[in-house]
Design goal:
Helix content is 32%, strand content 28%. The chain has 13 helices and 23 strands. The strands form six sheets. Strands 3, 7, 8, 9, 10, 11, 12, 13 and 16 form a nine-stranded mixed beta sheet that branches. The longest helix is centred in the middle third of the chain and has 21 residues.
Length: 440
């Protein structure tokens, strides 16, 4: 992608409305634009990051055995009235009517709808276990949306829903998502700690929030400091192994960890003082097991091996991609801008032409750009005629992991400079060596 042809509206000044680092940097880097209170457009640079976040989420959901579908954003109020949540959910739910005066709602979550899909299609225990998920825009009319897309009214969610014949099966499904979430956040460059949490309006009696520690977190969290060093389940994790996944769950719940809503001061004080960690945290995922809460109210039953009908046991599992992007920025930035983990960076490499219009610089940059693009790299080519300081500031602001800098003096010697955005380390090397480093 040539920067001269790309839409990336950079802001030179810090926006006054931005209260936290991620909101400020997302606006300055041209990733998002606010359309109304708590509602944002994702501009091309932000959309590239969001797509990469979603790809990792999707990959780990599929690996854990979940199956993707797509459910509508607008839902019939009848389903929610059937479950008893239509009136109980509160003003966060956007309630509307269609032209036939039928009550509708803009879905804040999908337990009712997915239960309806299940009960109309699955009749036998032989079709279980089943986990259905989708990645979809949702709406909750937050009383105080703030921090950009960290807490917005319209947001994207990956929500998955598991169905099992027994509680034991449901707990195994829960453990699958537990391990998948640990892997997902690790691949996004985050260290997420699962903490006991309140189930809120979802209901149920087993729930964990996945929290990353950050100074700008919305609430205080409490945990044992050893969580920071725990090993993450690797790609060889067997998601069919009941014993293996239970061992992962037990390890990651063996020490004290709780959000402020579930905090037990006496239990926390029982942890040696040197091992206590009290900090601010950002919720990036939430998983629930709620048994037969919805299947009983909505009649979701299957025939068991005993020939009798059984209400299925369910769980739901949420991750907010539009919340994850600012969370990653909160965890990875410096005074100059964003530092993207390579897995979600909008581009892998930015090639900076220090003197656009100079034949040698132009030819060198075109050569590098073509070679890296052919090798499958996402490359941004800064071919603008901006000043050197502006080019460097832009490259640092948008946080691309690698910068390849081609200036007249270096190019005359057959060389370019390669800069690591995270460490700031610079290395001069031949043009061929720079290409080979990222093509090999």
């Amino acid at each position: 992608m040539r920067l001269s042809r790309y839409f990336m509206p950079i802001l030179k000044e810090n926006p006054k409305e931005a209260e936290i680092v991620s909101h400020r940097l997302m606006l300055r880097a041209g990733m998002i634009r606010q359309q109304s209170q708590g509602i944002y457009s994702w501009l091309p640079l932000g959309k590239r990051v969001l797509d990469k976040v979603n790809a990792i989420i999707r990959d780990e959901q599929n690996r854990a055995g979940a199956i993707e579908l797509s459910m509508p954003t607008l839902q019939s109020a009848e389903l929610w009235q059937e479950s008893g949540r239509y009136d109980a959910y509160g003003k966060e739910m956007l309630r509307i009517k269609d032209r036939q005066d039928r009550p509708m709602l803009y879905g804040p979550t999908n337990e009712e709808m997915v239960t309806d899909i299940f009960r109309s299609s699955v009749k036998s225990y032989k079709d279980l276990p089943l986990n259905l998920y989708h990645i979809q825009l949702k709406f909750r009319d937050e009383i105080r949306p703030r921090f950009g897309t960290m807490r917005s009214r319209e947001f994207m969610m990956k929500d998955a829903y598991s169905f099992d014949l027994t509680r034991e099966g449901a707990e195994h499904s829960y453990n699958k998502m537990f391990a998948a979430y640990l892997r997902t956040f690790e691949r996004l460059g985050l260290r997420a700690i699962p903490m006991r949490a309140d189930t809120g309006p979802i209901g149920g009696n087993l729930s964990h929030e996945f929290i990353i520690l950050a100074d700008t977190g919305e609430s205080e969290v409490f945990c044992h400091k050893d969580f920071v060093g725990f090993d993450i389940p690797d790609e060889r994790t067997d998601f069919d192994s009941v014993e293996g996944l239970q061992a992962i769950f037990e390890k990651w719940t063996s020490l004290y960890a709780a959000t402020s809503e579930m905090h037990d001061e006496a239990a926390f004080n029982a942890v040696p003082e040197s091992d206590r960690l009290s900090a601010r945290g950002i919720e990036v995922g939430h998983i629930f097991y709620f048994g037969t809460k919805y299947s009983e109210t909505m009649g979701a039953k299957v025939q068991g091996p005993d020939g009798k009908e059984h209400f299925v046991h369910m769980g739901s599992y949420g991750i907010g991609p539009t919340r994850l992007v600012p969370a990653i920025i909160e965890a990875s930035h410096d005074d100059n801008g964003i530092i993207w983990p390579p897995s979600v960076a909008p581009f892998d490499i930015v090639v900076i032409n220090m003197k656009a219009g100079d034949q040698a610089c132009d030819d060198t940059c075109e050569l590098i750009y073509a070679a890296l693009t052919k090798a499958g790299k996402d490359v941004l080519y800064d071919d603008t005629d901006d000043r050197a300081g502006t080019k460097f500031a832009t490259a640092d602001l948008i946080g691309v992991p690698v910068q390849i800098i081609a200036g007249p003096r270096a190019v005359a010697n057959g060389e370019v400079e390669v800069k690591d955005r995270k460490t700031g380390a610079r290395e001069t090397m031949t043009i061929e060596a720079a290409i080979n480093r990222f093509v090999a």
